Amino acid sequence: MVLISDLSVLDPGDHIYVYRTGYCHHGINVGDGAVVEFSGDNSTDWSSFTIRETTLLEFADSKDVHRVEYVPHETFCEVLGNADAIMVGIPSSRERIVARAFKAIGLTDSPWDHKYNLVTNNCDAFAYWCVTGKMSLSNQFMKRLNLFAAPSNLVAHAWESTKWLLSSSSKKRRTQENQIRRLKEKDERHGHSRRVRAHRQLIPPPKKNPSR
User: Fold this and answer.
1) Are 184 and 110 in contact (CB under 8 A)?
2) Where are the domains of the chain?
3) What does CATH list as the number for 2-149?
């Protein structure tokens, strides 16, 4: 979780969120003090929710702004930590993220247009789509569901994370071993060459037979 104390350091394409009563609200920072969000003026009337542009100050609503970090693999720390702080996925370029956010505004054939759903189409699902280009169920809803409804998932996540960490460590160790082996082979080749030159210097040249 990255707390943004100075909003001016935010970059266009940043996936950001703020804590609100009972949930986190997500959006995409598009630069120039603006955010694209999936929301509405009446928080209880979901039918009024749509993709819209708002100001960063209105989005923050006097609350701390946080930036979502993306990782290629889910980790045990992520499962135990805040469900909104880290998401699994490969981010697109910042230009593509901002373009997706703007393109979704006002599109009548967009899956986000007036079809808000707490599980499938909500603010963090929209922000995740902007960043990765992939549709997904609500990240915060699914992770909270996993934590409360299926504690055994923690063991599975821990095991998968351990395997990934061990695999990464093993690859790094093999790389280091190969580098050391190549250095030793190089030293041995150079050492052999030096010994051959030294040996040649110790052997006197053959005497020429006197001419008869």
Assistant:
1) no
2) 2-149, 152-200
3) 3.90.1720.10
Residues across the chain: 212
Instruction: Kindly provide the residue ranges of all beta strands, DSSP E only, lying in 72-165, ordered along the sequence.
Output: 86-88
The 10 Å CB-count burial string (b at 16+, else e) for 81-118 is eebbbbbebebbebeebbebbbebeeeeebebbeebee
DSSP assignment letter at 120: S
Compute how many other C-beta atoms are within 10 angstroms of the C-beta atom of residue 46.
15
Name the amino acid, one letter, at 44.
Answer: T
Residue 93 exposure: Cα atoms within 13 Å on the Cβ side: 3
pLDDT digits (tens, 9 = 90+) for 7-58: 888 999 999 999 988 888 999 999 999 999 998 877 677 777 889 999 999 9
Closest-CA residue to 2 (of 21, 22, 29, 40): 29
Rounded CA-CA distance 78/167 in Å is 19
> pLDDT of 153-194, one tens digit each?
545 555 565 665 566 566 666 777 777 777 777 767 766 666
Question: How far apart are the C-alpha atoms of 164 and 80, rounded to whole Å?
Answer: 17
Cα dihedral 3/60/130/22 (nearest 10): 90
The amino acid that residue 20 corresponds to is R
